[in-house]
Design a protein that fits this description.
Elements lengths: L2 E5 L5 H11 L9 H5 L4 E16 L28 E17 L2 E9 L8 H15 L4 E6 L4 H9 L3 E6 L10 E5 L6 H18 L2 E3 L7
Parallel strand pairs: 1-8, 4-5
Antiparallel strand pairs: 1-2, 2-3, 3-4, 5-7, 6-7
């Protein structure tokens, strides 16, 4: 699989928004990624497949209604009149990951992959990038929430050392499903780092051609 991973840029916002809505169509309200780009705690990674597309971009999109953010925290914003559309040539994005680093904890808030790219190992690659980003930003542990019904995702997270530590009642807004809270052991421990290095190397070998532009202790 030929792809490369890098940090998200402002021109990626329309595609990331579309991927988020495709992956989580029943979750409301939507994430305001423009606000997230101004949030110093937020870190976003995008996966690109080497293709370029020409698209209409809006430099100041209309902002209306509430926005979905981590743990209900909302960033203030006002309505703006949209500027004229402009054509831009941008990299085609296949998926993305978002996390917040707060003091010594990295919280993975979303991993989303376009439907056409699912089942090809891209979600696992994005998870790897999230762990690398957490370590690079000096987080001691990584945490996330997952639906009890998402058995496949739980298996992936457990593979990378996440363990169930609790639950959040009626966490998901679409159907009030509970969330399983999962967390890692200390990221800087030799046991975790050894296991993570091996899993990362195995997955890169499996995927083949990967251009990885995420800062980490091992790249």
């Amino acid at each position: 699989m030929a792809c490369h991973l890098r940090y998200m840029a402002k021109e990626d916002i329309p595609q990331v928004t579309a991927i988020d809505r495709e992956a989580f169509p029943t979750m409301w309200p939507p994430v305001n990624f423009r606000n997230e780009m101004g949030n110093k705690m937020a870190h976003y990674v995008v996966a690109c497949d080497g293709q370029w597309i020409t698209t209409n971009q809006e430099s100041n999109p209309i902002k209306t209604g509430p926005v979905r953010t981590f743990l209900g925290i909302k960033w203030p914003f006002g309505s703006k009149t949209p500027d004229a559309h402009k054509l831009e040539t941008v990299e085609y994005i296949s998926g993305f990951l978002g996390l917040w680093v707060m003091v010594d904890e990295a919280h993975i808030i979303n991993i989303a992959v376009r439907e056409a790219w699912r089942g090809k190992g891209l979600g696992e690659l994005l998870l790897i990038s999230g762990i690398d980003t957490a370590i690079y930003n000096k987080a001691l542990v990584a945490t996330l929430e997952v639906r009890p019904s998402n058995i496949k995702a739980q298996a992936l997270y457990m593979k990378y050392g996440f363990q169930q530590v609790g639950s959040r009642k009626a966490y998901y807004s679409d159907n009030k499903e509970d969330a399983i809270v999962m967390t890692t052991d200390i990221l800087t421990s030799e046991a975790f780092q050894s296991r993570f290095r091996n899993l990362k190397a195995e997955h890169f070998h499996k995927l083949g051609e990967v251009d990885y532009r995420i800062e980490s202790p091992w790249t």
